[in-house]
Design brief:
The structure is a single chain. The chain is α/β, with parallel strands linked by helices. It has two domains: 192 residues, Glycogen Phosphorylase B (Rossmann fold), CATH 3.40.50.2000; 178 residues, Glycogen Phosphorylase B (Rossmann fold), CATH 3.40.50.2000. It is built from 16 helices and 13 strands. The strands form two sheets. Strands 3-2-1-4-5-6-7 form a seven-stranded parallel sheet, sandwiched between helices. A six-stranded parallel sheet has the order 10-9-8-11-12-13, with helices on both faces. The longest helix has 18 residues.
Amino acid sequence: MNIGYDAKRAFLNNTGLGNYSRWLIKAMATYYPDNIYWLYTPKIKDNRHLGLLKSLLNTKCIEPDTKFLSSWWRTKGIVKNLKSDEIQLYHGLSHELPLGIQQSGVKSVLTVHDLIFLRFPHYYGWINRTIYKVKIKYACKAANRIVAISQKTKNDLIELLGVDAAKIEVVYQNCDRAFSLRQSDNYKTTVQKKYKLPKRFLLTVGTIEERKNLLLLVKSLQYTRGNIPLVVVGKPTPYLDQVKAFIEQHQLGNRVTFLHEVSFDELPAIYQLATIFIYPSRYEGFGIPVLEALHSGTPVIAATGSCLEEAGGPDSVYVDPDNEHDLAKKINRVWNMPALRQNMALKGFEYCHNFDDEKLAGQLMALYQNTLTHA
């Protein structure tokens, strides 16, 4: 088959939607090598992702003929390319499909990651909310099938946009395999010394924004026993000022380390050095950092209320995203019980098999074939 992908995020985004796009393209190209995978992108940036995408021998990278109208090309002009390239199925990997694809004869699949902009509109400006809603409503209507990356996202599509449940299939994602590879003791020691990490610490990873709820975790430190240290890895936003103000007011500065420039190669070592991974986010489409922690053999405490139970499985620990006392209580328990941590790590690593690349690629291929045959 000739299968096309909206590969903008794969080439240009370092996290989130970019990680999903690269993972999916690589998994499909690896486990179903007889197909040709056409990667449509308005721009190709020379970064660490380019080598991965170009190393897949059964892929072709397609750019617009001119850079001046690249956004228009991705919105509509790409349909002409899909027809001339004889694409049989086109997969929009990040909430979007080009205008006119319904009339093109090319079958389409759409991945929806989350509807946070509808569930928590105050996190977004009015203009962005409006644009997102117009795009996703059109894409959901135009798509032959929709992939939701969690059951929670499927439920939101049905509740908030009125999408027919029969049109949606839940297909989870995996994280980069680097997180399941054991880092050497020497390398972990090097990373630990470079960032002056404590011998034991709590870890949280993700953009430091209001939705990720770092303030809850910082508040919980007041009620933990033994001055437990916290390491925060993530890109700062203005929300960080609010977190730092609380830290200063409550004299917690000696217990919190912020790392804003950690390389991807160092991240697995930091996960594996951590004693507990904490993810108190109020809402996620899936919560890939939880899966990264489980692959790393690190026990997880996460927030209830969205899909994190789907990512973390039955042996992780969950807390109310508004209850710092409950979070502190559970941190104390897990921190001080080595046998519990070991059991959580072992069971969590076993749970990761639900997200094996080959299994998920098989689900996607079955969906593709079903779309071509029946949709």
